[in-house]
Amino acid sequence: MTNSSVPMGIYIHIPFCLHKCEYCDFYSLPITDPVILENYTRSVISELQRRALSLSSPFASIYLGGGTPSLLLPQQVERIVDSVFANYQPCSDLEISMEVNPATVNLQDLKGLRAAGINRLSVGVQSFADIELKTLGRMHGGYEAQATLRDVVKAGFNNFNIDLIYGLPGQTLSGWQENLSLAMKFNPQHISAYLLQLDESTPMARKVKSGTINLLDDELESELYYTTLNFLAEQGYCHYEISNFARPGYECRHNLLYWQAREYLGIGCGAVSFMNRQRIINQANLNHYIEDMLADRAPHIEILETMTPRQLAADAIILGLRLTGGIKREEFWERFGIDIMEEYRDVIKTCQVQGLLEIENDRIYLVKRAYFLSNQVFNQFMA
Ligand code: SF4
């Protein structure tokens, strides 16, 4: 039984989408059948009840992700959120986030989500340019994304994120700057700007391989990234994680739990949990999951890894260095019983010589020029 007093996050996976985007390798299925969505809602509630029996930690956040959680009706979202409150112990000032796809919601839906208790939205805009959205295989256009963002504000959300992707085939510096400027029109409290990363199983990766489309070169990708940092700093956003920016006080608490290597409970088909040093996945088979949950049977799980204390510490370093505040030696010692400066002295020295890491007041952090090269640093810690 996990009964740590450190709050955990609760992630709820909704694995349905209108259709599969060209770049996506998340577990999601092109299903919109209302009967399946209702059965899935009941299944998630059943799993929430069952898993609560072995957990007594308080929780600091709920995050409904996918897939496309906004395919659920607001009433279904409300039943799921209510079930979390009925079965788990909430911290005060809870963050309840949900991902929203502009192709799936109108003002009425958004008002319904607000009434259901959702207090933070993450809007999957990705780009405001129709041609880029088409390349990505998104089901909405740029105009529709803007209309959704207007509705998000009208519905009373005062904490929302805009997700953008840079490094798209054919993207130019001015095209990316246009995307950033358009995002500013809606005064979001949070921006996530991710570099396009393609798993080789995706249709888009196959097009790159066959030469149908071309990715940008590293130099331009890096220019787009550092343009983002400078532009958003000028706009008053705090750069708190390699790809994430927030107005002060609006950092995503749920994602901070991940980067701080804290525990989280993953609910739903294909969801991953991290508890008691184990990473566990619920079997990604929708029919089996629904059958098990509705018959009140335990879900099929697979233990992905059981980490040794040292692996746990290495993982915490890699995640922690993603945060611009870096890692504090004393806090690390208290959590892992390891003096990071001593244990990783050689790696830290090498990275310092390479101009990628700095140490200041017993805090170790990536320097700005290393943000785009962070994998180079992480690989050295993992070696
Ligand atoms: S909407 Fe999101 S989860 Fe669904 S296919 Fe597109 S990228 Fe993947």
Task: List its salient traits.
383 residues, alpha/beta, pyruvate-formate lyase- activating enzyme, Arc Repressor Mutant, subunit A, 2 domains, nine-stranded mixed beta sheet, binds iron/sulfur cluster
CATH architecture tag of the largest domain: Alpha-Beta Horseshoe
- Whole-number total of structural domains: 2
Low-confidence stretches: none
Question: C-alpha Rg, in Å?
Answer: 21 Å
Tertiary shape: globular
Largest beta-sheet details: 9 strands, mixed
Descriptive account of the structure:
This protein is α/β, with parallel strands linked by helices. The chain folds into two domains: 8-259, pyruvate-formate lyase- activating enzyme (Alpha-Beta Horseshoe), CATH 3.80.30.20; 309-382, Arc Repressor Mutant, subunit A (Orthogonal Bundle), CATH 1.10.10. It is built from 15 helices and 15 strands. The strands form three sheets. A nine-stranded mixed sheet has the order 7-8-6-5-4-3-2-1-9, sandwiched between helices. The protein has a three-stranded antiparallel sheet with strand order 10-11-12, with no helix packed on it. Helix 2 (74-87) packs parallel to helix 3 and helix 6 runs parallel beside helix 8 (218-234). It is globular. 40% of the residues are buried. The mean pLDDT is 96.
Architecture blueprint of SSEs:
Elements: E1 8-14, H1 34-52, E2 58-66, H2 74-87, E3 89-100, H3 107-115, E4 120-126, H4 130-136, H5 142-154, E5 160-166, H6 173-184, E6 190-195, H7 203-210, H8 218-234, E7 238-241, E8 244-246, H9 253-259, E9 264-267, E10 272-275, E11 278-282, H10 286-294, E12 301-306, H11 309-320, E13 327-328, H12 329-336, H13 340-343, H14 345-353, E14 357-360, E15 363-366, H15 374-382
Parallel strand pairs: 1-2, 1-9, 2-3, 3-4, 4-5, 5-6
Antiparallel strand pairs: 6-8, 7-8, 10-11, 11-12, 13-15, 14-15
Helix pairs in contact: 1-2, 1-10, 2-3, 6-8
